[in-house]
Every structure is written in C-alpha cells, then in structure tokens.
Write a structure and sequence with these properties.
Blueprint (H helix, E strand, L loop, with lengths): L1 H13 L3 H12 L4 H8 L5 H40 L18 H15 L3 E2 L5 E3 H4 L10 H5 L16 E3 L5 H10 L3 E10 L10 E11 L4 H16 L5 E8 L2 E12 L6 E2 L4 E11 L1 H6 L8 E8 H9 L12 H7 L14
Parallel strand pairs: 1-4
Antiparallel strand pairs: 2-3, 4-5, 5-10, 6-7, 7-8, 7-9, 9-10
This protein binds phenylalanine.
Phenylalanine binds next to β9 and β10.
C-alpha cells in the first residue's frame, strides 16, 4: 500500500494536464483500478486482517482523490494565469479618437430664445421659406409698388412666360408667419416664429440668408408698454445681465407706432462686446400691429390689438458669443464650427442658465 501511495501521489503531482490526471484517476481509483483490485482482496482475508487493511485502503482512496482534486485545481489556476497573460489589456492606453459634431451658434441661440419666450407663454409657429408675395407683402400692408418692396432686396422665384400663378419670393422676413398664424388660430394669440429669411445683401453684418424670430401677441388690451416689458425681460434673460438698449421711433408698414431696438456694443480689438463702448447694433424691429394687417388675417381691429417684433437671431449670437463676422457663420469651416460650436450635451434651460 505504501508503494501504491508513493507511486500515485508522485504521478499526480507531476501530471502535466487534465487528460493525464484523468488517466491516473482511472488507473488508481477507477472500477478496475489498483485500489479497487486491493479492495476486492479484502474478502479473502481473515476478520482481523480485514480490520487493519480495510480502513487503510479507504484512507488511501481518500488521499488519492484529494490529491487528484488539488492537482486539478492547481492546473486550472495555471491555465487561467496563462490565459490572462495572453489576453493582457492595457487600460491606461489613450482611447481611440472619435469625431463629435457641435451645435451651430444659430441653433443654440434659437433654442435659448425659444426657451425664454416659452417661459413667457409664447408658442412656436412656423411658415414656408418660399412665400407668395401676398403673405410676404400685401397682407402686411405693403401693396404693390410700395417703396418697402424695393428696399428689401427681395429674391423673386423665376417664372416661365405665361405662368399666371401669384409671384413667389424667398421670404424677406418672418412676418408672413404672423398672417398665417392669425388666419389659423384667430385671437387671442401669442406666438414666436424662428426661421430663415433671405435678402440680397452681403457685408460684415449682412448675409443673403439669415435668421429671424418673429413675435406676436394679440389680445384685447395689449399695449406698447407690454412690448417694452417683454423685450427688456427677454434681453436680461438672454444676456444674463441688464444690457443698455436704445428704442428708436421708426417706421414699418405693418406696425403703427413702430420702434427699432439697438444694443450697446464695442467692436474694439476685432471682437464684438455687448454692454460696453459707444457703438450700437440694431437687433430688432417692433411695434403695434397695424389694423390693416389684423383685417387681412381676419381679425377685427376694433376688438383686438397687440404687438409684433422681429429679432435678428444671428446678430444676437454675434453679440452674446463675441463673434465678429457674420459671413463666417455660413462658410462651413470646421475650425470655426469647432471653435464657436456648442456641445450637444449642454442643452440650454432656464433653470440651468441659458
Ligand atoms: N419684419 C421686420 C424686418 O424684417 C421686423 C419687424 C417685425 C418689425 C415685426 C415690426 C414688427 O425688418
């Protein structure tokens, strides 16, 4: 028995893999193995001999079984160590670069403006960018041959000879959305309408396509005082501080009386800064909606009145984020977009600070 123990414990300790171990198990403690053969011999022994040999054989069997189990576990650990060495992963390596786009300043500012006016109870309305001249001009009290049509540097859609559909234009302002919204919803109404507008004009502060947000509030007793309060609230929320504004008496065919609003700024050192210097940048036109306009949109001016305004979104973006040249907004230069763009995860909210 000592010989058996010696033989198997050494062989088990030396077994190189699980297959060798299994062969040893069969050979030692399997049904036809050495230990089982010895056990069968117990029957031929005297009772006294059996009392000594029986427990010894059982102990040997247990010993071999635990040696097998221990070696199996050790082989498993070694295999795992080997695998971990092969599959080693350096988690300190820098990750692969991935390209992330940015939110354009115009989109960012449109969201900010919408959030502020939404907080004051304005809903967002939309209209087409290709408009009939009736919505863009006539309904807004700008009849044919009115000088305002010439002043607006309008883009007209090409027409075939003999086409007698009404002439269409690229809308020169968001004001036609006033007409569409009033015709759809009637009064009272409180909307803003952000979107693209087009005029043939090109310099540091003008591009042939730009963005406006129209505002319209019609009710029974809305006045110029409400207009001024709403705009001042808006500027304070938008710039996060009180900014100097200049309300100038003006003229628009679709409002009476009318006011244009400028914001104090400086252009020193190639950047535009709001709230300092002695330059002014015109950012909006506004006024009390003309009775002719209300009537064109099917609203009785003896019962209803209110204000409208049109703000230049791109100009607000230039002022708030210090962007000096409007033309660069639409060049699609990736360096510019990465520099002035916003992270998609920085969603503007009133509570988070716009
Ligand atoms: N539509 C005018 C413009 O584009 C702005 C404006 C809107 C003025 C509403 C008064 C009222 O210049």
């Amino acid at each position: 028995m000592d010989h058996l123990r010696e033989k198997y414990l050494t062989a088990i300790a030396d077994a190189a893999d699980e297959a060798a171990l299994e062969a040893l198990r069969v050979q030692a403690v399997g049904k036809k193995g050495d230990v089982s053969a010895r056990m069968r011999e117990l029957g031929k022994m005297t009772a006294e001999e059996r009392q000594v040999a029986g427990p010894k054989l059982n102990a040997l069997k247990d010993e071999i079984n635990s040696a097998l189990a221990a070696r199996k576990a050790a082989l498993g650990d070694a295999a795992l160590d080997e695998r971990l060495k092969g599959e080693w992963l350096d988690v300190t390596l820098p990750s692969r670069a991935h390209q992330v786009g940015t939110i354009h300043p115009v989109s960012q500012v449109t969201e900010e403006v919408s959030a502020i006016f939404a907080d004051m109870g304005f809903a967002v309305a939309e209209g087409p960018q290709i408009e009939s001249d009736w919505y863009n001009f006539d309904a807004l009290n700008i009849p044919d041959h009115h000088p305002a049509r010439g002043e607006m540097d309008t883009f007209y859609m090409a027409r075939e000879e003999g086409d007698n559909r009404p002439p269409h234009v690229l809308r020169t302002h968001t004001s036609p959305v006033q007409i569409r919204s009033m015709m759809d919803q009637g009064a009272p109404i409180r909307i803003i309408a952000p979107g693209r507008v087009y005029r043939a004009d090109y310099d540091q502060t003008h591009t042939p396509m730009f963005h406006q947000v129209e505002g319209l509030a019609i009710d029974r007793d809305i006045s110029m005082a409400n207009l001024k309060w709403v705009l001042e609230q808006f500027f304070t929320a938008f710039f996060g501080t009180e900014v100097k504004t200049r309300f100038r008496a003006s003229h628009f065919p679709f409002t009476e009386p009318s006011a244009e609003v400028d914001i104090q700024c400086s252009w020193e050192g190639g950047t535009v800064k709001v709230g300092e210097g002695d330059d002014w940048l015109e950012v909006l036109g506004s006024g009390m909606v003309h009775p002719h306009v209300l009537r064109s949109a099917g609203i009785d001016p003896d019962e209803w009145q209110g204000f409208a305004f049109g703000i230049g979104i791109d100009r607000l973006a230039m002022l708030k984020y210090g962007i000096p040249d409007l033309r660069a907004f639409f060049d699609s230069d990736l360096r510019w977009l990465r520099h002035y763009g916003f992270s998609a995860l920085e969603v503007p909210t009133l509570h988070g600070g716009v």
